[in-house]
Amino acid sequence: MEKNAIACILVITLMFLNSFGVATRVYSINKPKKCDEIIYANVISYWKDGIKTEFLKIVNKNLVYDPEDSSLLIIRVNSLSPLKPSKVLVNNIEVLPCVSKGVTIVEDMVAINFSLLGFRGIVRVIFDPASPRPTAYALKEEESFLEIESEGRIDLGSDVWGVVLVVISHENIDLSSVIQARYTLINHTVREISTEIGVIKEYLWKLLITGSSFTVKSIPPKILKMVYRRIFIYDAIVDEIGGGVIKVSSNIPNTSIYINPPFNCKVELLGNFSKKGMLSRLFNLYFPRVIDSLHIKLKINVSTYKVSFYYPNGTIYDDNVYVDNGIYRRIVSVGSITLPGKFTSGNLTIVFMLGSESIGCFKIYGVPPEIRVIAPLCLLTISLEDIKGKKVLNATVEVYRSFGKKVFSVRNGTLTLGYLPKGKYVIRVLKNGNEIGRRIINVESSMDVVIRCNLVDFEYQIIKTNGELVKNYTLSLVGMGVNISITSSLGKVEIKQLVPGTYTYTVTLRGRKVLEKKIYITIGNSTLMDIINLPTLTVKIVNAFGNPIRGVDVYLYFEKGELVARQSTDKYGKVVFPYLNKSTYVVDVPVLRCRKTVVLKGDEKISFRTDVILVLDGVVITSLHLIYIFLILVILSIVRIIFKLIKKKRDVIVLDIEDKK
Known about the structure:
Blueprint: H1 2-19, E1 36-47, E2 50-57, E3 62-65, E4 72-77, E5 83-90, E6 93-95, E7 103-106, E8 109-113, H2 114-117, E9 123-129, E10 136-146, E11 153-155, E12 160-169, E13 184-185, E14 192-195, E15 198-203, E16 207-210, E17 213-216, E18 223-235, E19 237-242, E20 245-249, E21 256-259, E22 265-270, H3 278-286, E23 295-302, E24 304-310, E25 321-324, E26 329-332, E27 336-340, E28 347-354, E29 357-365, E30 370-374, E31 377-385, E32 395-401, E33 404-410, E34 414-421, E35 423-431, E36 434-443, E37 447-452, E38 456-464, E39 473-479, E40 482-488, E41 492-498, E42 501-509, E43 512-521, E44 527-532, E45 537-542, E46 553-558, E47 563-568, E48 574-577, E49 583-589, E50 594-600, E51 604-609, E52 612-616, E53 619-622, H4 623-660
Parallel strand pairs: 1-29, 12-13, 24-30, 31-37, 38-44, 45-51
Antiparallel strand pairs: 1-2, 1-4, 3-9, 4-8, 5-6, 5-9, 7-8, 10-18, 10-21, 11-17, 12-15, 12-18, 14-15, 16-17, 19-20, 20-23, 22-23, 24-27, 25-26, 25-28, 28-29, 31-34, 32-33, 32-35, 35-36, 38-41, 39-40, 39-42, 42-43, 45-48, 46-47, 46-49, 49-50, 52-53
């Protein structure tokens, strides 16, 4: 009793804790080693009448957008995104990043001020792989002077995102040549400096940047010095104080704090800041979360986002999906899930399950408020054709993959496997248990596959030695899983789509086996003709007058008494026993009491002459029967005459008596 009470209390306690989110079920799963990355960009366009926010997918490291009449365009990715903006093109013309020209690239963000740029058009942003950044980090400027060495190479370091370069030279240098990498030119003011050798102008020298270094393409005659400002990136300290308040701070002196929150979070600043340096003014122009304070507090308004799962055809995915956003881990089986956004979460991991197998993994960066994720499945249709291009009927298809083997029966030559995971498949085609085709398929998208199967059409016919086509025989074929019998009325047998191999065939004529052989049927040996030399026995029965007798049963026996065949004579008094073996036979006509032994070595004709005149419904009439009939008729005629004479005599006597009276 006491144990039951304790158990009941534990259950109620767990239910209570779970209702408040204290007890959270954590699922574990073997995620695939490699996940496909889906990266969204947050596109914000500023208009006269408001702000428009969109979430667009980056495709092939490109994002294309029509700003129309907007004045300012901001495109940013999640700070943890593995791609960062590197180039901007407007109407397919590359626009080099320069603050005074209206184009800025700052780590995760591109800002285009069309008023400063001076023209507008279709914007294409090119993204390149880059190291992920935290949601909040600190920036610090540092200015240095550097003498360029003979090779002209300068290493800026991997933590540098922006740079200001001033080269003092004797030469007039084209100011349109600026940095070609992900660095943004903050300032390029030109100044005239009076020196002992004359007036020297400060110009931006033509540089080529690769990664975190650049090379001076050509050395001018005299470079006095180079002034450059590097902006370093440091990790900021992020603490969740509670109540939706985040504290962001930096231990690096004289730094600014940059914040790039997830798309589904809104950030409000608690408190003010006073310092207004060049860096803070730059960022506040485009992105108001760069603050010149080492310790700030932010209020996080967390909204929810919905993730739905679908098959490629748009129907709801009905198997399990593993979802992990770094905070919550769930197994979803209802086709969608709603998750709360978190300030520190930068990506969403989704693993589609098919039964117990992980079929695909997606890592999504910059999750919009609502997203549809398509299961990485492909529609595979297999068509089976023989070497002539005809559909293979009644075959078996075995599909092999890492999950094992699946077997399908295909009746009409086409197999639609439905949605399958991407990967390598081995397709094996069998007919009657024999392999007739095999193919290895690497499925990366929905596809139709044709498998050519090794099948042949078999044709067979028999002719006699005189060239006559034998008809009305039965061919039985056994082998390679086949056991069929076909009767030919026209003299030719055709069997479609046989598996090449060894077969035994038997020919039966009129119920008798006349031939049995083995044959290896292949593509080059699929037509067979047998020439047979089987004698024919013709029996003719005539009566005493030489006329044929019709309807008489003739029996043919082997010498040992085994019945071979029975036929009735036709209107010509004949019966024909074709395709006989060379042997000794007995011909018996029981109704006529005729019997004859025949040694058959070739075609043979025999005849029976009998005193039988005809046979009517099995009744035999001979010449003796005719004599009897004749005698009976004669006697009947004599009797008739006597009766007539007696009657006549009686009539005379009657008349005489009447006369006497």
